[in-house]
Structures are given as C-alpha cells and as structure tokens.
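User: Quick sanity check before I run a bigger batch. Here is a single chain. Can you write out its predicted 3D structure?
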Amino acid sequence: MKNSGFKFLLFSVLTLFMVNCSVNKNRGREKTAISKNEEKSKTEKFIDPSKVGFNLFEDSHSERKWVDSIYNTMTFDEKLGQLFMIAAYSNKDTVHFNALDKLIKNYKIGGLIFFQGGPVRQAKLTNRFQAESKTPLFIGNDAEWGLSMRLDSTYKYPWNMTLGAIQDMKLIEDLGVQMGKETKRMGLQFNFAPVLDINTNPNNPIIGNRSFGEDKEEVTKRAVALMKGFQKQGVFSTGKHFPGHGDTETDSHKGLPTVNFSKERLNEVEFYPYKKMFNLGLSSVMVAHLNVPSLETRENYPSSISYNVVTNILKKQLGFNGLIFTDALNMKGASNFKKPGEIDLEAFLAGNDILLFAEDVPTAIEKFTQAYKDTLITDERIEYSVKKILKYKYKAGLNKYKPIEINNLYSELNTPYSNSLQYKLFENAVTVAKNDHLTLPINELEKTKIAYVKIGDDSGNTFLTTLKKYADITVVSNENIDSLNQDLKKYNKVILGYHVSDKSWWKKYEFTETELSLIEKIAENNDVILDVFTKPYILSSLKNIDNIESIIVSYQNGDIAQEVSAELIFGAIEAKGKLPVSVGSLFKVGDGLSTQKINRLGFSTPESVGLSSEKLAEIDKIALKAIENRITPGAQILVARKGKVIYQKSFGYHTYRKDIKVKNSDIYDIASLSKIIGTLPNVMLDYDAQKINLDTRLGEMIHKARNSNKDSITFKELLSHYARLQAWEPFYKKTIDSISKKPLAKYYRKTELINFSTQVDENLFIRNDYNDTIIKKIIDSKLLPKKEYKYSDFTFILLKEYLETHHHKTLDVLAEENFFSRLGMSSTLYNPLQRFDMDMIPPTENDTYFRHQLVQGYVHDMAAAMQGGVAGHAGVFSNSIDIAKMMQMYLQKGNYGGVQYFSEKTFNDFNTCYFCAEGNRRGLGLDKPQLPGTSGPTCGCASLTSFGHTGFTGTMAWVDPETEIVYVFLSNRTFPDSNAPNKLSKENIREDIQKIIYDAIIKE
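Assistant: Done. Predicted structure follows.
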C-alpha cells in the first residue's frame, strides 16, 4: 500500500525481525518424499505477491542500481547464500568463530543472528565477520526487552507483559527509540521484535511475559508504538510469531504446538495486529513453527514450511511484501519434522525469504541446487527473495557499511537516560487491582503501625528499604503461621511482598500451598496490602480475596520496580497501570484503579528532573577528598529536585578508626538544624493560628521576660536575629571546676536521682532546676549596644520556653506529635538512644573539657545537653531522607503527604527577609543567601528565595523554590575535637557540593 508518510519512515528504517532461541537436539531420520498436494504447491507458477498485494517499498534509482550491480555479479551459490542467517555466539570459543568464518567466506551467507555473549565481544566479531564478507551481512538479535535478552552488560528493559499495563503509548515509543539506538550502536539491522502474539492462554509456556497481553487492540497499540520507535532509529522491526503463538500449551523449542482455531477466529484475532501493522510499515515478519489445522490440512505440518500459510495467507491474502523470516530452524517444532538442509528447502519453497538459524548450510545448498535442477525452484523465485534481501541491506545503509566503534561502547549502551526511562515505565505500569476502603495510599502515618512480611524465593530488599524511607516498617517473620499472626497483632497494617526472580521470563510462578495458607490467614486477621512482583496470572491461584484490602501487581522484581511500588503505596506517585490480561474470575483485562498522589518525596534519576548524573558524580570526589583529608570521618548527602530524590549517598565511617561505615539509615546530631526541624515548624503553627504575629512582644510570649530589657523585642526581630541578643553563653563553665574542668557535685550526679534526673550524658545527670537558671541568665543578660544582625542561640532557647509553657508539652513531644510522626520522619528525634542502637549514631566528639567522655547518642551542644537533650536550638538527631521530608514540606509551603500543616501565607511570611536593607539577610528563623558583597552559607548560586540552615557539627539543609532543589549535608566534622579549626567551612565543602548541584542543571 503506497503511503508517502510511510515511505519517508521506511527510508530511515532497518528491517527484519529475529526469532527465538536455539536448542540442541537429536534428530530422527525421516523420509523426504513429497506428497502430491505438497508437490503441487511447490511447482505451481511463481507469482510475485507485489502484483496482488501492496508494494510497501518504492525503489529509488540508486537503490535499484546498487541491488542490480550486486545481484548481477553473484554466482548461483552466492545468491543461495544470501538466504541463510546463521546463529553466532560471542561467548563461545575460536572453534565456533572459525566455523562462522568458513561459512562467510566459502558459502557467502547473508547474515548472522547473535545469541548469548557480551557487547564488546560481539561488536569485535561483527567487525571481523563484516570485513570477511563479500556482501555486507545482515546482523540481527532477539532484543524483545533490549539487548540484555541475549547480551550481558547491557540494559534490561521491562517485559512486554509489563508494557501491556502502560496506557501512554508515547512512552512505549520512547522505549522503542532508546532500544533502537542501542541496537543500531551494536551494528544490528534487525531487532526481532515486537511479539504480536495475543496471549489468551495463561498456561502458555513460551510466550507469557513476551506478550503485551490478551486484547488484540491493546497488543497492537503497543506493538505499533515500539515499532515506530525502532524504525525511527533505522532498525527494522520483525513481527512475530505468525500466524499466532498466543494460545498454545507447547513450547515450540521442544515440540510442535497446535493452534485449534478456525480461519475466522485467526483472521479476527491473531491476524489483527499484523494487518494493522502492515499498513503502518512493519518491515518483516517471523513465521512460527505451529500446527494450525484450519490453515494447513496436512497433519502436524509446521506453519513455517506451509505454502498456504506463508505465501497464500501472509503474502497474498494479507498483502505483506516485507522480508519473511522463519523462526529458528533448530527448534524442535521444525527440526523434528525434517533434517537440516531439508527443512531449509521446505521453508524456502513455502515462501520464506530468510532461513533463520540454519544448522547445515552446505547440505542446504546441495538440496537447493538439486531442487533447482529439478525445477522445484526457479531463477525468478531466487531473484525475488535475494533482491528483496539486498534492497533491505541498502535501506539499512549496508551499501556504505562502517565498522562498529568499540570505544565507549559500554557507556553508550548503559546511559543515565535508560534509568530515567525505566522509572517512567514502571511508574506507568504498576497496577492497583484492588483497593478497598481506599487503603492506598497509606495516610495518617502517626496512627499506623506497619509490618512487612516477605514471601517468595527472591530478594525484596529494595522494596523494604524504600518502604522504610516513608515510615517505620517492622519486618516480621515466623515459619509457624499461627505464631506469625500472633506477632502481627501489634500492627494495624501488613504489607505482603511476593518476590520471585526476574531472571527467567519463561518460568511459571505459582503460590505454594504454604504461601496461599499464609496469605489467607494473615488476611483474615489484618489489614493487608498484597504486592506481587511477577506477572498477574499468579493471582488466579488465590481462593478468596475478600479479606485482602489492597492488591498491587508490580510485574517484575527488579530494583526500580520495587522502589516504584513502594512509592505508590505511600502516595509519592499515583497508580496508572491496567491489567493486560484477565485473571480467572477475579479481574478482567483492563482492570486497574487510580490512586491519589499526595506530595510525598519520590525517587528517580537525575536526568528525570533535568540534572546531569555525570556532573553530580563530582560530589563523590569532594566527599571522599574531605574524608581523606580528615575534614570529617563521614557524611550523608542527599539531593532532591521536583519532588524526587535523585542522589542519596553515604561516605566514610563513623570515626577515623574506620570500624563502622556510614549508612543512609544512620542518624546524625544535626546541631542547629534542630532550629528549623524541631522548633520552628511548631512556632509556625502558632503563627498560623494567629496566637502570635510579627509584632508580638517577647514579654507577651514569655512571662519571665516581662519588665525585662527584652520585653519589647518583637517576634519579627527575635526570629530575624535582630534583637540585640548575645550570640551564646557557655553555661556549662559555671558548673565545672575551674582547675580540673570536671563537673561540680553541686550541679551533677553520676547516677539518676529524683532531683537529678535530667540526663546530660551516659553517666552524668544535672539538677532538674538548672533549666530555670539558663532561662534566667538569658533574660538577665545585657543587650548588645548596637542594633544589628547577630546570630544567637538565645532566640531558639527562648522559643522552646514559649512553646512548652503555652502548650504544656515538652518540645520533643510537640515535634513528634505535630510533625515527625505525621511526616514519616521515623528516624528523627531528640535523645535517640531511647529508640536506636548507638551503632547507628556517629559520635560528635571525644569531650575533654566538660563531660570527659565520648559524646555519642547524646547531643553535642553543651547547653542543649544541660537541658536534657531537648533544646530549641539543638538536640535533634536525624538522617538525610528525614531532613529532606521537612525541607520538602517547606518547599511545598506547608503541604506534605496530603496534609496542609500551615498556610502558604505563613510560610511566605517566614521566608521573607525583613531587614535586608539593614544588612541582615535572615528570614524568620530561616537562614537566607548571603547579601551582595558579604559571606554566607551558600555557594552564591542559590536564588534569593532560597532558605535553609547550617549546623555546628557539620550539617546543612537548603531549599531553592526557583530550581525546586533540596540539598542536605550531614556529618560529624566535630569528631574528635570540636575546638579544632573548622576545616569543613574553611574548605567550603558544603558550598562546593551545592555549586556542583547547580552546575548539574541541564540547560533546556
């Protein structure tokens, strides 16, 4: 069918599609007699199908000239050689390679289909074989989900069944483009894909995950999208496995499957995608080895060698004029029928152009030669296929063949873009099949205790790790189901993760009886979310799903699938996928529920949010250099943009002894970041509730400040560090001996007593009334003589006093109830040893001047320690992901996880610099970028709307609303001596990392 748009597309396209795998086999000797019916089909006058169908390829003059020039110089044997595409393996030895050399040089074969091996090895072999070939070779590969289907060290994209759940066809076309680029980079002209089989049989042993699903229209949409992507890159697509392998129960690698459908049914269903795609430019078709009685009357006669199937139906009835490949001729479905050489001849006589995985080319050439002498095949028939092959070689650019460039091959086949695309694909594929009571996404984290129970035989570590980034998740396991249920009584939600290996696309997974019993009994007594990381058919074995609140199908068990699925459970993404197949009577094809996205942080790649992963890699160098130069023993660094965490790494160790490596889950003393993580958000709540305003006097907020020199300080001045307060006071010095520097007995005890229950450190308790002394000292302190910017810890020490007095709760309780528990900051708290082991907490100092012990798990700041570890200016311990949640909440102006904590106006008021004209950069409690001509906390590249804070222990959290960047840096740079020069600041480590983040922004 002539179509100008299609012609334009095809000129940039490469053709041909490759078939399935190889299997070694013992062959029985069979008679080669030809039945009368069979002989008639072979000897009837050859008819060029283009005369009865549609010629999809309009020949150019230069193409015809090249084809004729090559064809006219070929010997008879050379012409025959073009019909064969031989199996090649880059993981085999020189014996195999030499055998291929011989076939190329002596028999002038037309192409190679590569199977197992590696990309560099295959590329080198391709260059070698192309250099040896008189006529450029076709090179093909089964790359249904990317080159990784055959090659190691290449990217593995989702199976077609997973793509079948995706509703965005542009996304699948993008995948086709990327796969096409990688295929072309490998010097391949054919990707033997897409699979067009309609998988209507759940027990199909060989198609299954290779199919887009069971609905003919949905399968066609996805196949078309993938084909467009391939062919935009000049790579030929091959539709397979004609006439349709979707409803079979035999693997054609092992035997001859039977398809018992009528002609009408085949035409209506199995042929549907082929007919649609022929009109849209499908380059080639692969014919399967199937027994189809309605299309071939000879009993158990493979469709791949049936003249009626290949010529009468595919070419004439359906009008296909592209290249036609056999499925691999070594497969039992074909090889059990005829011997090597004989099966090749039969396939050619049936109408195939290229004989895939021919096992004995010399014998086949002999058989062809004899058939030619016996006039079973004619010059016209040979010319038809060989010239068609040459035309495709021209269209593929093989008339100007260039060797594959080996340099950078690995990196160009494994690009950051591939990861970004993979995230998008799974974000669109993961399917919520059931969601009673709107269980998903999980809300009200402060009221939810969640257990995770793993079933299946593969790892679910990434899933669990990601779940724990959202909430406190407890792993519960017990081989005894009754005991397990008893353990689960402590929880009000149970996530069941079914994890099986992704490595075997063909393997059929089913729940064991034990697993079924476990699911059933847990669901009877608990609110259950069942998440299966395999194909949907697994659900058909569930006897009853009434007690399962939510069911998620995540399709595959790779790391990205696990991460995305966890995101969905907590509302970082919405559910978009639809089931590509029906599941017994439980679910219909197309079922899939939407869920709500509730503004929680998600996870992706730098490129997905417009950052360069290559540039961000420079962060690693700075962090490692800082550790090497003993600037800090270790660090956590996180970068998020546009609501996605795209960089989260830990470096170094807890101490310079290098005994415990820093992990992302470790918690640091965040020092003054406590001001904006623990204290400030609670102050903002009161401001939002109009309990205080910009002009509220300190004397109104704190009764003890009335009639003092601080009575008239306004809220705006106080939080802007513009209140003439002293920077700080070393309160501890008044409580230690001036000579020995040891704590005085007047103030401290080594064990907890009734009046000495405020813990300073492991073996040190201060008298309970000393907090009043601290507040009194601050209230009584002199004001600075000049009204100017002066950063002061007193501000937040006083704010703690205000909050606790007005709310009748301690600050740690307020922070936990109002924010930490609700935001899912399950690793954030004051006095962390109440909940966490010391091994998770890097020490901050080996104190020789006050506490005289290793400070680990207790707050480093002396004044905060004297307040029992709960202070307005310090005391919080946290990790990078938890800090990022609070900063993201600020970025979203008070909104996170579907909750509006305070109004946008409140946030804007606090993020305003009220005294910039006076040289004070500060907002209300929030630090701001340095003013022109001054030093400050940032790299100088953050916008004026940006905000954040730094901390004495070597911490920083910064947010830029204009670039939507969240940056978190945590360290224990104060270890082992906080009085040593602050090399972290002197060397601008935090600022230089921030500069890299901004330099990583990809300019549009």
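The first strand starts at residue 84 and ends at 88.

User: Great, the batch can go ahead then.
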